[in-house]
Amino acid sequence: MASKTIFFTAIIALLLHFYLPHAVSSRPLIPGNSPFQFIKPLQDSKKGDNKEGIQQLKQYLHRYGYLNSTQYSPSAEVDADLFDEHMERAIRIYLINFNLNSTGVLDGETVATMMKPRCGMADIIDDNKIGFRTKATDPEGYMDGLGGHILGLEHSSNPGAIMFPTMQNGTVKGLGPDDIAGIRAMYKLP
C-alpha cells in the first residue's frame, strides 16, 4: 500500500512540476482586480443586444466549454458583439452549472460569478479543449483541485467542493464531502 502511495505522489509531483508553471498566473491577485473585468459592463445584457465586449464573453464561454466550435468562431467578424441564441443558451447552461437562476440574462449575480478567479479547466469538456490559466487565491486549495483533475475528477456544481470551478477571494477550502465522494466513486473505495 505504501508503494502505491509513493508512486501516485511521485506522478502528481512530476505533473505539477511540468504543468504548474502554465497553470498559475505569475501576477499576484489584487483584491477587486479580475482578469474578467470586461464582463462587468455587459451586466443586464440579453438576447438581441449588440454591445462591445460580447465577443470577449463569447471567447470566455468557449474557453470554459459553454460554446462549442460550431456556435463560436474567433475569426467571425459578422455580429461578433451580438448576444444571439447561442449565447443565451450558453448563459443558461452556465447558470444551471453554478446553481443560479437560469434566465439567460447577464444579471448582477451572473456577472459577479463570472468575474471570480477560477480554474482554467473547462467546466464542460467540448472538443477536448483544456486551458490552464487562473489566479489562485488559495494555493493549497488550487493544488488540491489540480490534483483532483489529475485523478480524473471533473468540476462540481457544489460551491463548497474543492472541485468547484471558481474561487472566492480570501476563501480557503479543504477537501469536502462532495470531493471525497467523487474520489471514492471513481476508484471504487468504501
Describe the protein.
The protein is mainly alpha-helical and 190 residues long. It has 2 domains: 24-135, Muramoyl-pentapeptide Carboxypeptidase, domain 1 (Orthogonal Bundle), CATH 1.10.101; 137-190, no CATH class. 39% of the residues lie in helices and 0% in strands. It has 6 helices and no strands. The protein has helices at 2-23, 54-63, 85-97, 108-114, 139-150, 177-186. The protein starts with a helix and ends with a helix.
Outline of this structure?
With 190 residues, the chain is an all-alpha fold.
Residue fraction in strands: under 5%
Would you report the number of β strands? 0
> Mind telling me which CATH architecture of the largest domain this is?
Orthogonal Bundle
Radius of gyration equals 18 Å
The count of helical stretches stands at 6
State the separation between the terminal residues, measured CA to CA.
Answer: 16 Å
CATH class of the largest domain: Mainly Alpha
Could you tell me the mean pLDDT? 75
Low-confidence stretches: 17-30, 125-136
How many domain modules? 2
Family: Belongs to the peptidase M10A family. Matrix metalloproteinases (MMPs) subfamily.
GO molecular function, one term: zinc ion binding
Protein name: Peptidoglycan binding-like domain-containing protein
Signal peptide: 1-26
